[in-house]
Amino acid sequence: MSTATGKDKERFANLRKALDSIRKSWANRHGPKLKLFGPRYPNTVEFQRSPEGQEVYREFDKLNAKISTILEKSTMGGHAFGRPGSNGEPALETPRMPPEVYARLRSEFTALLSTRFYHDVSSPVDAPEKTTYGDVDLLVSNPRHDFTVEELATALRAKRYICTRNNPTWNFAIPDDGETSGGEVYRQLDIQVCRPGQLAWETFTHSHGDLWMILRPTINYYGLKADDTGLYVRNQGVNFRVGMASLLHLTSEPHEVLEFLGMDVEKYDQTFPTMSELFDYAASTRLFNRSAFEKVAMNSKERQKLKRPMYRMWLEEYLPKSERDLDSDQELTRSRVVLEAMEKFRKGGQS
To answer: Which residues fall within 8 angstroms of residue 250, CB to CB, at 6 or more apart?
Structure first.
C-alpha cells in the first residue's frame, strides 16, 4: 500500500469543500424551522422537545454522522503523524492496513514489548467486519524495568513518536519492513499505559469497537456507573456533584460484570463475525431497556456519539427493527438492580 500523493490530498480538500456545501444546503432548507425557536419556544429544552426541534436535531445528527463516515473512509490510516512535529520532524503517512498486515505487526509489537519492556501486554478484541485498520492498539502494564520513552522508541525503530504529559497513550510511527510495494511505509502503533491492576478492565472496555459505548447507557439507567476504571454504584449518602466520592466501587473484573449483566462470558472474548451478531449480543443483557436511549435525542453529549458509525447503526437500524421486547421485565427497577449489585459484589454492609 503506497502513501498518499499530491493528487490524493487535492481530492481530499475538494471533498471537504463539497461537505461544506452540503452543510449550507441543509441550513437553507431547515432555516425556517429554526426561526420557530424565538417566538414559540421559550428556551432550548422546550425547542428540543417540540416536534419541530426533534426533527431538526435528528436530521442534523444524521447529516453530521454521514459526513463523519465519509471523512473517516477518506483518511489514510492513523492520524497522529499527518502533520510536521513541533521540532520540525517531517509529516509521515501511515496508510490503512489490510488484516494480514495488521495481524503480523500486532504479533511483532506484542512480542517485543512483552519480552523486553512489560510483563503484561494485551490487545482489544477487534470489531466485526473490519476490512482495514488505521493503527495497532496495544495496552501495557507492569514494566520489567525502568526505561525512557526514547529507549522504547529506539527499540521499536520509530521514526517519530508522540508522548504528552498526563496522556497515557503514546503514538509511534514505525517503518514496515514487511511492505514490498516500493518506498518506505510507516505504521502507527498506539500504546496505552494502564494503571496497576487495570489492564484487564481497560482491555475489556476497548474491545469490539463501540460495544461498551452501547452497554453503558443501560448500566447507568439502573443506578450504576461504568467508566474506564470499573463498575460503581452511586452512594446515596453523598451528593453526586462531588465526583468519585459519591461512587462505591463494585468490581473491575470483566467476567464478573458480564455475569451480573446476564451475558455470555465466552462470547465476549471472541470476535463477532457480523455487526448483527454483536448487536444481538448487546441486546442479550437482562438489564436492557429502550428507555435508556431516549435521552440521546435530547442530550448534546450523547448526540456526539452518533458520529460513531457503529453506535449510530445500533440506534437507527438495529433497535427500531428488533423484534425482542426489551422492556419485558416490568419488575426490574433501579432500586432492585442496585440491591442485586450490592449483594453480588458483597457491598451490602456499606452505604
So the answer is: 224, 230, 231, 232, 233, 341, 342, 345, 347
